[in-house]
Amino acid sequence: MTTKLKPRQRITANVKALMHYRGYERHKDLGARLGWSESKVSRAFNEDKWPLDELDDLAAALRVSAADLLRDPDTYLPGGGDAGRVLAPSVTVE
């Protein structure tokens, strides 16, 4: 049984996996897309604190919706749960 993640932890897990999926290798790669410093991105990851007023921008940089960032990463993302997981909105692996 998987531990239930808090919403902020889900965002962190989803952003981390989506960064990998989208080819962002470092925090500064994502930061460049957002206009954030590398330290701001690192702080968000380390503290699980994502600025809510910039969540739409974060989601857009990763080509998902803000709601997608709150989904259960075990069933939503590559490397998570079952074989029918969703990789991006409307794209499913069977």
Description:
It contains six helices and two strands. It has 94 residues and is mainly alpha-helical. It has a single domain, classed as 434 Repressor (Amino-terminal Domain), CATH 1.10.260. It is globular and about 30 Å long. The chain starts with 6 loop residues before the first helix and ends with a strand.
Features:
globular; 6 helices; mainly alpha; disordered C terminus; 52% helix
What ranges have pLDDT less than 50 throughout 5 or more consecutive residues? 80-94
Strand content: 5-15%
Q: How many DSSP-defined strands?
A: 2
What's the oligomerization state?
Answer: single chain
Residue share in helix? 40-55%
| Largest sheet strand order | 1-2
User: Main sheet?
Assistant: 2 strands, antiparallel
Mean pLDDT: 81
The first-to-last residue Cα distance is 23 Å
- The shape, in one word, is globular
What is the string of helix and strand elements? HHHHHHEE
Counted by DSSP, the helix tally is: 6
CATH superfamily: lambda repressor-like DNA-binding domains
Query: What top-tier CATH class fits best?
Result: Mainly Alpha
InterPro entries: Cro/C1-type_HTH, Lambda_DNA-bd_dom_sf
GO molecular function, one term: DNA binding
Protein name: Helix-turn-helix domain-containing protein
